[in-house]
Amino acid sequence: MISARPSVSPAPPISNPDGGSDRANCARRSALAALREIDPATKAAAARALYAASLDGSLACPADLELAEPPDLPGRPARPELVDPRKLKRRSMQSPEGRAVLLHALAHIEFNAINLALDAVWRFAGMPAAFYTDWLKVAAEEAHHFSLLTARLAEFGYVYGDFPAHDGLWDMCERTRGDVLARMALVPRTLEARGLDASPPIRARLQQAGDQASAAILDVILRDEIGHVLIGNHWFRHLCDAGGLDPHATYTRLAEQYHAPKLRGPFNFEARRDAGFDEAELAALVALAGLDAEQAAPSAPAGISD
After folding, report:
1. 183-195 b/e with 16+ CB inside 10 Å = b?
2. Distance (Å, rounded) from C-alpha 225 to C-alpha 241?
3. Residue 191's closest CA among 142, 144, 151, 147?
4. 296-306: per-residue pLDDT in tens?
């Protein structure tokens, strides 16, 4: 049985952590190597290749392997400059530069999301094989998002690193480094789920500005992020079931213990429902947003009315 608060115990350093045939055939060692990669495009390509290799059976994924944490995580370029979120200025999306700033911020989120998914693969030993495959899939899809956003950013004349950014996502990764239950609760189910809520209004603003190409990228990201949050919900409940824990009370405890961001509306109830949040969780968000239950109910299929 998995304990109520699984953790990664210290392990002796692995031999030749940066190379060798062992890493080439081990999904978890390869994920750690990709996490350490500092070049964003190379990291994104490595994440996609890792998932493809996991599907064709060319990679082993030993769940019992304990890996020592290197001191250089995560690998990232010298730019963008990382600043306090409060120092990031808002700009109008009616201007091309304003939309470029937004695309850069989204690319930074996706770059960090690649790192978060790769970190889950190498760090947490003792999980079922499907856990590692799921997070390799997430890493590959986040890499695809990053590539879409940076390609669009280039059309505005900018590259990733041209604007400052913040480090909020990786900060939560650091806080939950020893607790896979907390990681599943607070990264996919909290931070990534906030992206489900933020996506529709951002897309609407892009569309209002006449930027259909950028809005279309948001559609791809929202579709995939629903699946990522669903994966987080699945493994959070798996761990709660294994530890005999109530998921609702456990989430509340972990959010307080790790100082998770407070949830604020508006909420994308339809996307959250599709992502695996249960009706009790959605009802709590309804109350938090000051809505009534009908406003959070599933929308009727097209062509069907009362």
Report:
1. bbbbbbbbbbbbb
2. 24
3. 142
4. 555 433 333 32
